[in-house]
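Example record

The entry below shows one chain as it appears in the dataset: sequence first, then structure tokens.
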Amino acid sequence: MDLTYPLAPLLGYLAAGSLKFAINTLRDRKAAWRGIGLGGAVSTHTTIVWTTCWLLGFRDGFGQPAFSVALTLAVIVMIDAMDLRQKIGAQALALKAAFPERPDVAALRGRLGHKPQEVLGGIALGALCAAMLNWL
């Protein structure tokens, strides 16, 4: 039984999370536990979907319907990462400014979403993860 495909998203998740933690730890000069899940380089969601997308392309072919479906999902995730999540973060900052006394509003995160280079990093890391899985 080939478990490569189900392992692809897990490997992408672990690789992106580990790299993001390392980058934030080096930048902040302390363990970046509080920065987990707050955007930044590399996009974890992008890495997860692109690891599977690349693996489908490498193994089954880039002209196959499964690759096309994975590519569609990957594009939707990238749009979400760069656009929708940043707008949600901006709304959180506006709510914090308008209602600073409310604890439920104070808990909202203003830093969400990714810059294009962070998403491109996720695509590249996904390709690396998929190449490693394809090699196995």
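Notes for this example: Residues 65-98 form the longest helix (34 residues). The mean pLDDT is 89.
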